[in-house]
Please model this.
Amino acid sequence: MDNKANIFTELVEKNQGIIHKVCRVYTDDKDSHDDLFQEIVLQLWRSYDSFKGDSKFTTWMYRVSLNTAITLIRKKTKSKEIDYAESNFINIKSDDKDESLEERITLLYASIHFLNDIERALVLLYLEDLPYKDIAETLGISEVNARVKMNRVKIKLKEIMTKMEQ
Model:
């Protein structure tokens, strides 16, 4: 393996949590998660030469991962209607067995599936506790636009979660 491939592999292995998080938000089963993970890694490799270091590697990685996920999901779901409210795609186990917290997290992830692709990306980056500057850079929008969109998405998520709880 040449040096470029070694550096790429090291960076992806170190930051693969980003890819897993994107996959979790855009898929609802293990096979789809694994397929999307592989596709994202492939797209990262194909576009690795375009990474010039103008932004952090993780910002670039988020951008490629999100674009790949959104593109693939749009292709797959054009003719497919999925009821995410009834799916139990995520099963988070908390260390302290706080059932209420587990239920809220499960509800949050189920609710995220009702958002459009860009809103999902925005929520994912927000949940990563990234500053709005980094969110804006990753999504290719202004920082002000990222804040406004996030405030709207928060309201939308609250409404979705309230409806799902009833």
Observations:
- The longest helix spans residues 143-165.
- The chain is about 70% helix and 0% strand.
- The two ends are 55 Å apart (CA to CA).
- The chain has a mean pLDDT of 83.
